[in-house]
Amino acid sequence: MPNTEARRGPSIIDAPQSPTTNARAFAPGRTLRQGAKVLPEHARGHNRSLVLQTLFHQGAMSRADLSRETGLTRVTISDLVAELIADGFVAEMGVREASGPGKPAILVDLDHAGHRIIGLDLSGSDTFIGAVLTLDGGIVARREVAVPAADALVDTVVELARALVAESHAPVLGVGVGTPGVVDDRGVILTAPNFGWAGFDLEGALRNALEVPVLVANDANAAVLAEYTFGGAPDDVLLVKVGRGVGSGLLLAGQPMRGSRFAAGEIGHVTVGTDGGPQCACGKVGCLEAWLSVPSLTSRLNAAADPAAHEGILRDAGERLGIALAPVVGALDVSEIVLSGPPELLGGSLAEQTVETLRARTLAPSVDEGVRVRMTEQGQDIVLRGAAVMVLSGQLGVS
User: Fold this and answer.
1) Cβ atoms < 10 Å from Cβ of 29
2) Are 323 and 356 in contact (CB under 8 A)?
3) Helix (H) or strand (E) holding 237
4) Which segments of the chain does DSSP mark as H helices, in order?
C-alpha cells in the first residue's frame, strides 16, 4: 500500500478527465490529486477518480466511510462502487469486525490484482528494464535486455513490452515509459542524443505496436512521481537522478513542472563554478554532469591513488551539486531534495556537503527550516514505479 505518512490535503484537477481520456501526469496546469466534488459536467469521471484515490491511499473501507471521506452522497457512492466493481477496479473484501449493534459493514478496496501496469525504464547504461506491476506499485514480473545498437532500439523496446504484456495474466491498464531525453506532452522524444532520437514519436510507435494505452516521459520526471506517490515526498520536491547522466524532476504545489520547451529539470549541463573542470560530452567544460555522473565520479575515485582522497572527491561533487541547486531552491522555495542513484556515491559525504552548500548559498527562516536533502528509498525500481504512476494518473486519476 502507498506510503501515506504526512499526506497532503486535497488537490483539484483543473479539468477533470474520464479514465478513458488518457489524461497525462505531466499535463499543463494539472495537479496530480483531486479531493473534492466538481462541476456537474465533469462529475462522473472526477468522482470515479476521487473514490479510487481515496481507496488507494487509505485502504479498505465501507461505502459509508467513502461517503464521509469524499463528501459524496451514499447513493452516489453505491452507484460508483458498483460500476468500479463491474469494471474490475474495486472488489468487496468481506465484512468489518462488528463493534456494536447492527449489520456489519462490507469493506471495499482497490482490486490490486484486477489489472496490471507495464513499466519500462530505458535510462540504464547497459540494460533496459521492464516490469509488470500491480495497481499499488508492486512488481510481479521483471525482464532485462541489453541495450542494443541504435538501429535496433525501437524493436527491442517493443519486444520487451510485448513480452511483459504476455506475462501480465490480467487486463493491462497501460504502459508507462521513462526514457532519457527531452520528451514533449505527446510522448515525442524531442532529443535523446545517446539514442540518436530527435523528433521521434516513441509513444505512438508503442501504442500502434501494442494496441494498449501508452504514456512516455523523461526518466527523472517519472522518478519524481514515484517518490511523490510511494515515497512520501511533499508537494514541493526536486528529485535529482544520477546515473549515466544527471537530470531532475520537479513538483511544485503538487503540479509537475515541464517548462516552456519541456526541458525543466535538465540541470546536467549547467556549469558549476568558474574554475574550469572536466570536459563534458556536450563540449562544454565544468558541467554538473561531468562532475557528478556515475561514470565521471567513479573514474575520479578509481584514479585516486590514496583512498583518503575519496572523501574530498565526494565532498567536491556535493558542493558542485549544491551550487547548481541553490538558485532553484532560492527561486522556488523547494522544501525537499531527493537524490536517486548509487547510495555508496550519493549518500554520506556527498549529500552532507550538498546540504552545507545550500545552507551557505540560500536564505532560510532558520537553520531547522532549511531544505532537506535525502536519498530515495525506492532503489533501482524508482523509474519503473514512476512509470506505473503515470498510467495510474492518466487512466484512473490516481497518484
Assistant:
1) 8
2) no
3) strand 237-242
4) 40-58, 63-70, 74-86, 153-166, 202-210, 219-230, 288-292, 294-303, 309-332, 343-346, 349-361, 382-391
Give pLDDT tens digits for 351-392. 999 999 999 998 866 555 678 999 999 999 999 999 999 999
Q: Do residues 285 and 279 lie in contact, with contact meaning Cβ atoms separated by under 8 Å?
A: yes
Q: Which residues of 75-111 are buried (b: 16+ CB within 10 A; e: fewer)?
A: ebbeebbeebeeeebbbeeeeeeeeeeeeebebbbbb
pLDDT tens figures, 271-295: 997 788 888 888 889 999 999 999 9
* pLDDT tens-place string over residues 378-388: 999 999 999 99
Q: Which residues fall within 8 angstroms of residue 40, CB to CB, at 6 or more apart?
A: none
359, three cell numbers: 545552507
Find residue 75's DSSP bridge partners.
none
pTM, entire model: 0.87
